[in-house]
Amino acid sequence: MCPSRCLAAVDLERGRLYLVHLFHSWGHITHTLNMQHWIVCVLLLFLVFCDVSTQRKKKSVQTLSRGWGDDITWVQTYEEGLSKAVDSKKPLMIIHHLEDCPHSKALKKAFSEHQTIQRLAKSDFIMLNLVHETTDTNLAPDGFYVPRILFVDPTLTVRADIAGKYANRMYTYEPADMDFLAENMMKAKILLKNDHEDHDDL
């Protein structure tokens, strides 16, 4: 009887140790799962924060562009545009428009879809679009109509010589005039570059 009792005791001890092992293993698994759960939660919170930040930044960019080109860097005010034009020695291109004007909307759509214009605006110009007139009357050589587009060179001279196709509204453009506007942008860039080279020679 003693050997049987000893074997039973051994079996009971083994069973107890096995249960203890299972308990500790389950605790380790539960701890690991909890850690993984917290890691996943932290990662999700981080991704949400990054997405919110991106959306806010995108919203800010879109607010300044007002649909004229979200990939373009836009200045917020006329004064900021003049300052950046001087510092960068790039011409300032100013688009006067109104949000509820059908002609402005049509021009905006054509402007934003023209690849050459978007490329030039992004790389070679300081860009500003305005829905309110400035106090500088030089920006309205032939009247305060919209839409109209003018260029200001880095010497802060309004380039009234770079005009559109229409005698009654010299600085307006139609959606069909986008190639002509692109040519005017190239003209402004080249003329202004040559002007500065002439000033540098002096």
From TrEMBL:
Alphabetical UniProt keywords: Membrane, Signal, Transmembrane, Transmembrane helix
Positions of transmembrane segments: 35-52
Keyword Zinc-finger found: no
Protein name, as recorded: Anterior gradient 1
Organism from which the protein derives: Cirrhinus molitorella (mud carp)
